[in-house]
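Lecture notes, unit on protein representations.

Consider one protein chain, 563 amino acids long.
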Amino acid sequence: MGRGRVETIFPGVGVARRYERSWLRPDLTAGAVLVALLIPAGMAYAEAAGLPPVTGLYATIVPLLAYAVFGPSRVLVLGPDSSLAPMIAAAVLPLALGSSGRAVSLAGMLALLMGLILMAGRALRLGFVTRLLSKPIRVGYLNGIALVVIAAQLPKLLGISVRGGSVWDYLGQTIRGLADGEANGAAVVIGIGSLGAIVVPRLLRSTLPGVVLAVVGSATATAVLGLGGRLPVVGALPPGLPAPALSGLQLSDVMDLLGPAAGIALIAFADTSVLSRALASRHGYTADGNQEMGALGVANAASGLLGGFPVSGSASRTPVAVQAGARTQLVGVVAAALLVAFMALAPGLPAYLPSSTLAAVVIVAAASMVDVTTLVRLARMSRIETALLIAAFLGVAFIGVLQGIVVAIGLSLMAFVRQAWDPYRTELVSIEDVPGYHDLSRHPEGRRIPGLVIARFDAPLFFANGDVFDAHVRRLVAEAPGPVRWVVVAAEPITGVDTTAIDDLVELDDHLDRAGISLVFAEMKGPIKDRLVRFGVGSRFGPDHFFPTVNSAVKAYRRTYDI
């Protein structure tokens, strides 16, 4: 295997071969800074997914090491993410039947399946599938995810014990708990204080790491004031490093997880690829989308095999690494090594970390996903896209995370089909002293050429809109001010045609022919002409039916009738 091939499969190897000594210090520094955020974030997002906090550390260490070898982006940080946590919970917890160990096994299998799906997508070069998630859908689902996460974390912030369920269940149980005086005073104080420690530095645009301040401050207060017995705490980490945890699963569990794994893979890759492209553009290198898909797949498969759960690129931790001076993937290796050291040398420290502090970390992360600005902007620009955003939000928040995403994608595809089914269509006319032929609806002063109709249809012709095209041409002929001899189709916008549309086209040609009208095409693309021949209608539409430009078709019409 040549060097180029090795570096294509293992981008980290190529970076290591060209590593510059001047990068070492900033990479080491960035890794040390990053780990202070990775510990609380990993544990918090594990809890948000309904899993033991230690699995969040496993899901941080393993993907960082895997991505350092396979990842094309030099400074992207992979790990647990607030947007994935509720999807993981929705997929895993109903099957776990209340067993923490079974939940860990299911989450690992979910990550493994997700990794295999992404690696298969890499082999098939399916990076384009993320385009199924338009911006309105992504904003809607992120806003919905934010509501789901905040509703689920509010009871933990207030020290209230709830059974869980939907957004309404969480909110209702929290309100009832407050009304019945079930809130834990110490948890409330610590939780609100942690929120302040995280949010205030951001509002003041301070460089102080608010998450680290909240975690260290709350843990110190709990230890010094002896609050461990008065409020819920995370608890000491179990001994040991990442290890396989897939026992006890059956084939039926795997089948139940396949659908959620595909949905989470789509979301994770969409977020990761956008972040990866932005970083590559900013730092002057290229990141191949299919390569990114494969690397994310390897990282997730490794996470699933070694006690973790699904991960994606982190939009909150990656900027921390960049601001700390990160140059290469070595940052992830350093951070992973320091995490291992923390787990080996100080596993008891989380025994003093209040659960309300982790809830505060998750709530702030979820709140940062809320995007009202885009909703307002879309409301001014497009009613359909606004409706898609709201549908995605409501579906994710109130139907279910995974079901809501499926509904949103379905609605998006329906909107696309509707747009193709009912595209913009018009008649073209000439304008005095202006070259070419122009849209009559925008230029009512335009002049028709006697006996000639020039029709434009701005979409591919397929089964859903062939009759719409037919009706458009017939309407223009019927509304023409005098007898029509030719219909010219300005076919440049027609980028495809299927067999059903061909049948509609033949029927239209027969209808026009019976009325003594010739149907011709201008600016039709070569591949579309080839399809007409392949579908058996090449003899009907001979060379004299096609013209390179609308102007040449009009000239041929004038010559034919000496106009």
